[in-house]
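Table S5 (text form). Sequence records supplied for joint modeling of the two-component complex.
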Amino acid sequence: MKDILLPVAHVFALVMMVFAATMLAPLIMAVWGLDAALWSFVTSALATFLIGALLWLATRHYRRELKTRDGLMLVALTWVALPAVAGFPLWHYLPISYTNAYFEAASGLTTSGATTLTGIEFLPRSINLWRHLLSWLGGMGIIVLAVAILPMLGVGGMQIYRAEMPGPMKDSKLTPRIGQTAKLLWAVYAGLTAACIACLRLAGMNWFDAVCHGFSAVSLGGFSTYDASIGHFNSLPIEMVLTLFEILAALNFATHYLAWTQRGVKAYFRDAEAKAVLGVLSASCVGLAIFLFLKGSYADFPTALRHAVFNVVSVATDSGLHTQDYSRWPIFAPMWMLFLGCIVASSGSTGGGIKMIRTLVLAKQAHRELNQLVHPNMVRPLKVGGTIIANRVVFAVLAFVFLYFMSVAGLVFVQLASGLDFLTALSAIVACINNAGPGLGLVGPGSTYAVLTDFQIWVCSAAMLLGRLEVFTILVLFTPTLWRK
Amino acid sequence: MKIIILGAGQVGRTAAYHLSREEANDVTVIDMNEEILRDLQDRLDIRTVNGNAASPKILEAAGIAGTDILVALTSSDEVNMLACHIAWTLYRTPKKIARVRSADYTERERIFGENAVAVDVWISPEQLVTEYIARLIRYPGALQVLDFADGRVRLVGIRALQGGPLVGQALSTLREHIPSADARVAAIYRAGKSVKPEGTTVVEDGDEVFFLAARKDIRVVMKELRKAEAPARRVVIAGGGNIGFRLAIELEDRNQVKLIERDAKRARRVSEQLKSTTVLHGDAADEELLLEENIDSADVFAALTNSEEANILSAMLAKRLGAHKVMALINKPSYAELIESGSIDVAISPQTVTIGSLLAHVRRGDVVRVHSLRRGAAEALEVVVHGEADSSKVIGRRIEDIVLPEGTTLGAVVRGEDVIIAHHDTTVQPDDHLILFLTDRRHIEAVEKLFQGSASFL
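The corresponding structure-token record, covering 943 residues in total, follows.
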């Protein structure tokens, strides 16, 4: 076990030292704004760097090229351990327990956006910047970033990349070199973020809010700088900008890259997944707007449409920003939104859940089975958008979906056993595993996760990590073969 | 450099491995077999595309438009040639290298060219391997014999043995031993580790020594390192496949050659085309057949069948039965390492022989020839220097003044027809061909830079 873990720890130490550097951003913010959290960031950055450096020195004899299983372990270790240090400044500065600080950091890194904090608008700007920065770093993936900037990850890079990037088919690279692919994806991601920030500024936010919400929207994080989230601004242009960028972030970034290199939107029309995402989203927005209007939640249809569009897109793409306390809508609406959160985001996007491509594969597989009943001798390959999906992929998707739902069921039972009511337990777990953020019931958008017990919060943290790494990467840690020589 | 490799066979996979481990290369491999590609992508940092290598659609998917070099290594000559032609016609790919095995094509050079079949360089791995083995047989005792400057200079790898006059002496005494000939020791490997060859370095028994010398001087220098062996006369070849057959043709004029082939039909076809070779139908691992054919008096036994395991076993058997020197064709690098320390004298790795001819084309600067050595860890290259004394870090300087990267030796200079063995006071002139030996391939970029600076006007 020592021989398996220590070489991974050696690389992880490097990731940690790089991560310490990202704490410089809130630190500079704290110096600039002369805010009270400065000391927390200084100690945290130093501590993170020192722990990384010591670990690196201590494990330097175990340096070797990473194998497949090392890649899996590195990703799992990074995601479980980084919230522990990322939460440090929050714990140091705010009067919250370490449980809540870890939850907050994990929620940021996994782009969930669930929070235990209230009075967010009164927090120092450096603390808020840190929360949003965590979302942004976690969105495209910390390890993918590491692959892009640390060339020594080299060959093992592909395995690592596959363990972190969401979606069932990850063999196709944009460029021959994995480092190059990672750089391109980050470039597209950074470009979209910059565009979003500029648009938000134009729509009337101040620079600080624009940066924070830009990070939040493009990473589909869901943190806001206000307790009332986007409801605070009550501005249609801001809502429109955020909706647009949330939809873009829920599409595959490889498709964005293709569209950018081809200077046209053709790439989106060729991407069957993108078409399905847009179709389901528009139908749901219009459908729910009509439903809300008929049920009398809003007096006129335009208002119903405005609120339906923003909140449905936000929850369906697993962002979690909100303008209304949608838990007060008739129960059909929020449940439908939570359901969408499970399936809408694309593979290769920053969203969570099962991903649209898997939904499509399963739908086609179900269709194939039905046809097979009628024509027992029929031979038909499974195609999505004209591409044949290998049976190997179909099996992987089936296994994934099984594990995903068993995880949801298992964790919901744990929450129920710990005394939570059914609606809160179910919605909290679904919202966490999809990295969506607010749930319903006690943890609805009008409230926070602070009402839960420490134990329940740890369960939610675990759900977020499971969801972000698409279950397999975390569960593989519990398979005995991984630990055998 | 952007490189597309067609075909993930043995040569294709080795090429992908060697090319992709150089940071500057972006490698894409195209093959029909999805399983092989998946496995390859798991181990190497490359992109793979599944499909027909000659299909423009597949080539486009692999990014042919911006590609610098197309290397066609599928098992079919025709697919390779067609793919190169398509790449040139549609995308003007600057350099196209194709594996063309059939002499039917390569004999008629007019087939190739910009207005004919657009292949810039054709290589035939079988031919390269055959020539390599033939050279080894011509210089008994050598582990490796590699050509530079069209064979005027050769790099020879040899195991030093007690009995050679230089063994136990410092390298600087070499000139006193053989005043008439000149040679330069480029590298010494002792127990697998490289030892820097300086004037004071003492050659020990069992060292693997690489030296550069003009062709006429090679035998004299070899005699310094181990007792002279009589030239090989009786050669037994196991396997009448492409390589075995070609080797028989190459050797039968000067040697007494026996060729063992297990397939009756193939044995018949081979025998029809050979002149003096005795073709035997049978199993090369059949003890009785070997004894009957006087294996104990054979100077060389070369096992060259398609199956490396069979090669290893039959070579070991031949050695036990008394063959003087045995060679085996081995594809897996790990096997080669295993057996060279055992009873087999020379392990021939076809990939290492072939890869050099590809590497010469990806090297920056005017590199004419590259030989990959020690399973890719070391490299020997022939570089042409261009430019003027004031623009170059090399031209007009004495060799002692040139700052070479660590582990690099400058062994010889070829100036026109003359071969000059490098000494500290040799001055480099424009258009000289320099022969360099790198014990650590990782310094290749520094070497490229050194010589590219002088070629900047190109």
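Note: DSSP finds 15 helices and 22 strands in chain B.
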